[in-house]
Amino acid sequence: MLFAGTPDVAVPTLRALAERHTVVGALTRPPARRSRRGGEEPSPVAVAARELGIEVLEWTTLRTPEAQEAVRALGADVAVVVAYGALVPPALLDVPAHGWINLHFSLLPAWRGAAPVQWAVRSGDEITGATTFRLTAGLDTGPVIGTMTEAVRPRDTSGDLLDRLSEAGVPLVLATLDALADGSASPTEQPEDGVSLAPKVEVADARVPWHLPAVAVDRFVRSMTPAPGAWTELAGTRVKVAPVVPAAGASGGVGDDVVLAPGEIRAGKNEVLVGTGTSPVALGEVAPAGRSWMRAADWARGARLGDGAAFDGVVSGGDAGGASDSGDAGASERAGDGAAVNRG
To answer: Of 251, 246, 203, 209, which is closest to residue 224 (Cα–Cα)?
Structure first.
């Protein structure tokens, strides 16, 4: 089989496949800068594949004749995709006999796109999961083979949730491949209702929308953690923001008796409150431009915040409400660890 993936979250699946199957090649993105100060580094999948003795193919695009010929020459009967980060052109979709099987970190058709976990956290979904499906020319529209569900915990960041899904998705991929091999897989077309999109989130999209309700601000910041990283500005200087603690209203939470305008800052001895569209939130840690993370109270003392201090602007972060359709696995057999594979 052929594997295609790039970041850390793809490595658990690659390692599991290498233990049980013959992986003839690993497609991954070319070396890139992974920190501001460092040089170009190979992807985590490239590093793991080389450790496992698997041939690595680092193509910028699969649209060139050279790249396509290299894929065909491998003779793989199936290709497994986990967060590859590049499009598979139509000319290659039918090259493996069993197609390209993608592990997508949502319950399709919810959250089609590049950032399903970030959008699930931002939207307050209580349940998400992962889906295996066969790639087609559309954006995450192919027939579903298997699913598994995962609860979104109240304080999950997108990083927390993605780490769990990357591990929990491994049994789903293995069960999907077993079903394809024995002929019991029953790919099912995705329903037309319940579709939601999860476009890639850029740094420019991660500015904290203080005008939203506290619960939405909390979800927003957690969804941007660790990447691309939530941020705001004070006097024109960018400040990174770690997860915040929302007020709990009548239940006696942070900031219950404090009224602040959206973005307004009130610094106490041990806490820093920021106004939102409803009740304030308490900052946890912050990282001013060019500096390391620190407790918000320590930052506030050094910043010498006066009365009426406020973060610059109130920029809309889009609709942070709503919830995805968690779907239904339908007629299936359990595949362990919450995974279900559609079988005929």
So the answer is: 203
Residue 106 known to bind ligand:
yes
Q: Does 107 belong to an annotated binding site?
A: yes
The span from the CA of 231 to the CA of 101, in Å, is 36
Name the residue with tokens 């460092």. 38
How many other CB atoms are there within 10 angstroms of residue 207's CB atom?
22
What is the number of other CB atoms lying within 10 angstroms of the CB of residue 326? 16
d(CA 260, CA 84): 44
Mean pLDDT of 269-284: 94
If you average pLDDT over residues 227-240, what whole number do you get? 96
In whole angstroms, give the CA distance from residue 147 to residue 104.
Answer: 9
Quote the CA–CA distance of 211 and 260 in Å, as a whole number: 11
What one-character DSSP code corresponds to residue 113? S
Distance separating alpha carbons of residues 282 and 269, to the nearest angstrom: 13
pTM: 0.89
Residues ≥6 apart with Cβ < 8 Å to 92: 62, 68, 71, 72, 100
d(CA 317, CA 328): 31
DSSP conformation letters of 57-70: EE-S-S-SHHHHHH
- For the chain, how are helix, strand and coil distributed in percent, rounded to 5? 25, 25, 50
The answer on whether 109 is annotated among ligand-binding residues is: yes
Bridge pairing between strands 79-82 and 100-104: parallel
pLDDT digits (tens, 9 = 90+) for 119-143: 999 999 999 999 999 999 999 999 9
> Which domains can be identified in the chain, with CATH numbers?
2-198+322-342 (3.40.50.170), 203-303 (3.10.25.10)
Q: Confirm if 188 and 342 have CB atoms less than 8 A apart.
A: yes
pLDDT above 50 (res 249): no
Average pLDDT over residues 204-233: 98
pLDDT at residue 253 in the model: 47
Percent of the chain with pLDDT over 70: 88
42 labelled binding-site residue = no
| Res 319 pLDDT > 50 | no
